[in-house]
Write a structure and sequence with these properties.
With 700 residues, the chain is an alpha/beta fold. The chain has three domains: 212 residues, Rossmann fold (3-Layer(aba) Sandwich), CATH 3.40.50; 176 residues, Dimethylsulfoxide Reductase, domain 2; 135 residues, Beta Barrel (Barwin-like endoglucanases). 29% of the residues lie in helices and 18% in strands. The protein has 26 helices and 27 strands. Helix 8 runs parallel beside helix 13. It starts with a strand and ends with a helix. Bound molecules: ligand MGD (2 copies) and molybdenum atom. The site of one ligand MGD has 32 residues, from helix 6. The site of one ligand MGD has 34 residues, from helix 17 and strand 16.
């Protein structure tokens, strides 16, 4: 008899799908989207459809491994769990006795689960008094920008199909928000106008009615100019502005300086395109039809990403777009959830201590004692879980130098021998989503989801929670919270008495698979009520002013702007957004998906190629002062002039030259949220030395 297990997709994606896993005699034989779950609608993306191929992959890590060769070469020998825990505990205790802050956790969103994410792990590091990690690598600029403007909330995507205008702003939903794209198509069939704002003619941009191909990192200027036109032409919802916003007068003065002509110059687009978009947006919203901005993270990965997010997030208030369920803005919905972070992570175990904080974007500086970490105590141990920093963190050659330090004790919890695991002293095999219990929120919709284990752990793998639980026991941590089961942790992940969740319970979610937050109103901000300090959309942020920061949305050019002095040496702006068949660096080692992506590519415009006598299919070298990598050129008008595109994130060891796009990205931080600036990156491109791929093969 087959069993069907109710599960949830663990990946870092706004869709957080409800899944059904079919199990036959202990083996998972089928994985599918839950047909009853409204946002999943019975379909999974190509990647997660291959989840069984990933789970039963021949290269799954099956036992704990101890390093026996030089760091980076990936030479390991199997050891028992007990041997691994005994040695790791001894090493960590010796460091903690001197200074526990020399131990650092490094984790991100390999799983978005609240149980296998930061629950037992954070309890462990809090009890230890280890350094804290500021998890900034993805969304902290936009998250901060959003929080200071409307709160970390957005409209309900289940109404998107009713919109008359959808602006995909720095968002490529075909690749990274597939179930939203389904609704965009439905809206399009019903007559909606679809616009993409993106430096690249992405898979989604090419299916839109209009594509505004601006230069990377110039979105703030564009948003200020759209507002300029709306105000100049009185395309405003005066009533909404007066009742539900603060600081309009100052903002009006600010945007007066942003004529479409000025912004056109900055963004590298035509003034007419800006004018037309503003008028269209204003007219549709003011006529009471849905005008929706799907903002995504692509536009906040430049120096001014926080302010750019603010400049966009105020637009719906100007035209009263929040009054329609299908209007307003969707960036992140994660702030809707009444999460019980303190119960999950137990900061009380710190007993008032405030350890130092390491910004994960600067892990290279932190490990090498460079940049802002020069005067700090060196890191002695790092424990990596749910992340692959050697592939995904910026300034990669420095990241590698840090992880290669002989005096660094490094433990990696993983499914596979990733680029990072190669540098570990111990690699500990972790279970996948099919093998452990979890509970999830989403950043793209309004559901809480449960993940029930479908199969027994593969090999000797253990859930992250169990690894930290057993390590805690070895270290003598005897607080009762270390004995809690995964089920007990899941049950306290949310405040179930909160009005949004009072209609359901952990037990019910576990059985059915999901429950929707009851936020009360289909258009939750039709009458204001934003989760900001003032309860309004904040043109003027008193909280920013109090920190001595610019209180009004502003435009900050990229650090590495195409008109900066650096551009004389490195004239091309490089972006490295997600490839459709990978999920960050996850799935790159799944053969069928890698085969679809082919090999690492750089898309560049025919004009830029001609200037460098580069032809389609040629191997090129992309470089700047931070480093270089190689891949195959695709000469295509999908890339606008002046911008090159390296779809990411490749495993370094699966690329011909053993490198990826993060060789050239930098560790500079954004204006708000101290976030990463992956797409604020000038480079030059040249034909690669014909022998360079070969050289590496000989040297390994
Ligand atoms: N298939 C797939 N899905 C994913 C991921 C993946 O790796 N693969 N990653 C997941 C994760 S972690 C996240 S954070 C999200 C990522 O979400 P995003 O980073 O928002 O990724 P996309 O939706 O692909 O949109 C990025 C788009 O923004 C464009 N872009 C780049 N720079 C700029 C800019 O300065 N301005 C504007 N307007 N556009 C810009 C890119 O060309 C790209 O088409 O997706 C998640 N989903
Ligand atoms: N150049 C460039 N760099 C980027 C980006 C970009 O667009 N361009 N995007 C950035 C963004 S948005 C993000 S979010 C980061 C993402 O960076 P990461 O969060 O590091 O994401 P992944 O590369 O997917 O690595 C996740 C790892 O976690 C492991 N994992 C999954 N589930 C579990 C589990 O249950 N237990 C354990 N122990 N391990 C598990 C997976 O096997 C995988 O190796 O990368 C950033 N880096
Ligand atoms: Mo991300």
């Amino acid at each position: 008899m087959n069993k069907i297990i109710q599960a949830a997709c663990p990946h870092d994606c706004p869709d957080t799908c409800a899944m059904q896993v079919t199990v036959h005699q202990g083996q998972a034989i089928k994985i599918a989207g839950d047909p009853h779950h409204p946002t999943t609608g019975g379909t999974l993306c190509t990647k997660v459809s291959r989840y069984l191929e990933r789970t039963y992959h021949a290269e799954r890590l099956l036992t704990p491994l101890k390093r026996i060769g030089p760091k980076g070469l990936g030479k390991f020998t199997p050891v028992s769990w007990d041997e691994a825990f005994t040695d790791i505990a001894a090493r960590l205790m010796a460091i903690a006795k001197e200074n526990p802050e020399r131990i650092v956790p490094y984790s991100y969103a390999g799983t978005m689960g609240l149980v296998q994410g930061e629950s037992m792990a954070m309890r462990f590091f809090n009890q230890l008094g280890a350094s804290r990690l500021d998890r900034t690598i993805c969304s902290s600029a936009g998250g901060a920008g959003l929080s200071y403007t409307i709160g970390r909330v957005g409209m309900d995507m289940e109404f998107a199909q009713d919109a008359q205008l959808i602006i995909l702003w720095g968002s490529n939903p075909i690749a990274s928000n597939l179930h939203f794209w389904t609704r965009v198509q439905e809206a399009k069939r019903k007559g909606a106008y679809i616009v993409a704002i993106d430096p690249y003619r992405s898979l989604s941009a090419e299916k839109c009615h209009e594509h505004l191909a601006l230069l990377p990192g110039t979105d703030g200027a564009l948003a200020l100019a759209l507002a300029h036109v709306l105000i100049r032409d009185s395309l405003l919802d005066e009533d909404y502005i007066s009742r539900h916003t603060v600081g309009f007068e100052g903002y009006k003065a600010r945007v007066a300086a942003w004529s479409p002509e000025r912004a056109a110059q900055v963004c590298g687009v035509s003034a007419a395109q800006i004018e037309n978009l503003a008028v269209r947006y204003g007219k549709i919203a003011l006529s009471g039809q849905g005008a929706l901005i799907r903002l995504n993270y692509g536009m906040q990965r430049s120096r001014g990403g926080g302010n750019a997010t603010r400049a966009v997030a105020v637009l719906p208030a100007l035209v009263g777009a929040w009054k329609q369920p299908s209007g307003g803005l969707l960036f992140s919905t994660s702030g809707w959830y009444p999460i019980n972070k303190a119960g999950l992570e137990r900061p009380d175990l710190l007993e008032g201590k405030v350890p130092r904080t390491i910004n994960m974007t600067e892990i290279a500086h932190a490990l090498n004692g460079s940049g802002p970490y020069q005067q700090q105590e060196p890191i002695a141990a790092v424990m990596v879980y749910n992340s692959n920093p050697v592939a995904v963190a910026p300034d990669s050659s420095s990241v590698v130098r840090g992880f290669a330090r002989e005096d660094l004790f490094c433990v990696v919890l993983e499914h596979f021998m990733t680029d990072t695991a190669d540098y570990a002293d111990y690699v500990l095999p972790a279970t996948t989503q099919l093998e452990h219990l979890d509970i999830h929120r989403s950043y793209g919709h309004f559901y809480v989801l449960a993940n029930n284990p479908a199969i027994a752990p593969v090999g000797d793998s253990l859930p992250n929670t169990e690894i930290f639980r057993r390590l805690a026991a070895k270290m003598g941590f005897n607080h009762p919270c270390f004995s809690e089961s995964d089920e007990q942790i899941a049950a306290q992940a949310f405040d179930w008495k909160h009005p949004y969740l009072a209609h359901t319970s952990w037990q019910e979610v576990k059985e059915k698979g999901w429950a929707k937050l009851n936020v009360g109103n289909q258009a939750p901000f039709a009458e204001g009520g934003f989760p900001t300090a003032s309860g309004k959309t904040e043109f003027f942020s008193a909280a920013l002013a109090a920190q001595g920061l610019e209180p009004l949305p502003d435009y900050l050019p990229p650090l590495e702007a195409t008109d900066s002095p650096l551009a004389k040496k490195y004239p091309l702006a490089m972006i490295s957004p997600p490839a459709r068949n990978f999920l960050n660096s996850t799935f790159v080692n799944v053969q069928s998906l890698r085969a679809t992506e082919g090999e690492p590519h750089l898309d560049l415009h025919p004009l830029d190629a001609a200037k460098r006598t580069i032809v389609d299919g040629q191997r090129v070298r992309i470089f700047n002062d931070r480093g270089s990598f190689e891949c195959k050129a695709r000469v295509t008008e999908k890339a606008r002039p002046g911008v090159v595109v390296a779809l990411s994130i490749w495993w370094k060891k699966l690329a011909a030259d053993g490198k990826n796009a993060n060789e050239v990205t930098g560790q500079s931080l954004t204006d708000l949220g101290a976030g990463a600036t992956f797409y604020d990156c000038l480079v030059e491109v040249e034909a690669a030395n014909a022998n360079s791929g070969q050289e590496r093969e000989n040297s390994v």
